[in-house]
Amino acid sequence: MAKGLKPGFVLDEFTLGSRDFVVRTPKKSDAEGCRCHVNRLVKEKAFILMQKRVSAGDERKWLAGTIRGNAAGRSVTVVVETGGEIVGVAAASVGGMKAVAHVANFGIGMSRHRDIGLGTRLMKLMLRLARRRLRAKLARLTVYAANERAIRCYEKVGFAECGRVPRAYNHHGRYIDMVIMARRL
Fold first, then answer.
1. Average pLDDT over residues 145-168
2. What is the DSSP letter of 107?
3. Helix (H, G, I), strand (E, B) or coil at 182
4. Domain contains 174
5. Strand, helix or coil at 140?
6. What is the number of structural domains in the chain?
7. Is the pTM of this model over 0.90?
8. Distance between CA 97 and CA 119 in Å, rounded?
């Protein structure tokens, strides 16, 4: 694996519409911004695994682990910021076992500024980072079958459905299929 990424390292800066965006690695001081981001997703009942609000302590623990993973080169986690607010988080990580060390597992969550190409741009960046920094050969993710917006985004960047697990997600009492998607890097 490549050398790790330092906290606060800027990977991309761009403008979409009239908004300026920065994509960078998270830093310790992002705990509250990340917590607000995920809690917005929880409140709107977004298609994420988290279904209860995250406490400040839990977010600090998650962030500390994320920063360690970035530094060690085991993962690449980034935040998307605009106007001083974190509006997205994306992550790619590889497994430690040799048999799957070439497979990068992806996750992304956008809490603001959807349908303007931000998710697609972020996924393209994450695919490059997985290939270059994690030396991954295959990208894999899972998504709620009902999350059509996300599925369209993933298809735009080359992912294809390769499997489905019926009723795998319990989304606030409603069972939804898990779609497994993959693409070569």
1. 97
2. E
3. strand
4. no
5. strand
6. 1
7. yes
8. 30
What whole-number distance in Å separates Cα of residue 40 and Cα of residue 45? 9
Q: Look at residue 2 in the predicted model and tell me its pLDDT.
A: 53
Element (H, E) at 131: helix 118-132
User: How far apart, in Å, do the first and last CA atoms of the chain sit?
Assistant: 15
User: Which of left, alpha, beta for 115 (phi over 0: left; psi -120 to 50: alpha)?
Assistant: left
Strands 138-144 and 103-110: parallel
The domain that contains 112 carries what CATH number? 3.40.630.30
Stated as kind and residue range, the H or E segment containing 75 is strand 75-82
Specify if 39 maps to a domain.
yes
Rounded distance between C-alpha atoms, residue 24 and residue 124, angstroms: 14
d(CA 5, CA 51): 30
Q: Is the pLDDT of residue 82 over 90?
A: yes
Residue with tokens 């986690």: 77
- Residue length of the chain: 185
172, 48 in Cβ contact below 8 A? no
pLDDT exceeds cutoff 80 at 3: no
> Is 147 part of any domain?
no
Q: Give 21's strand partners.
A: 14
The C-alpha atoms of residue 141 and residue 104 are separated, in whole angstroms, by 8
CA 180, CA 70: separation in Å to the nearest integer? 25
Amino acid type, 81? E
- pLDDT exceeds cutoff 50 at 1: no
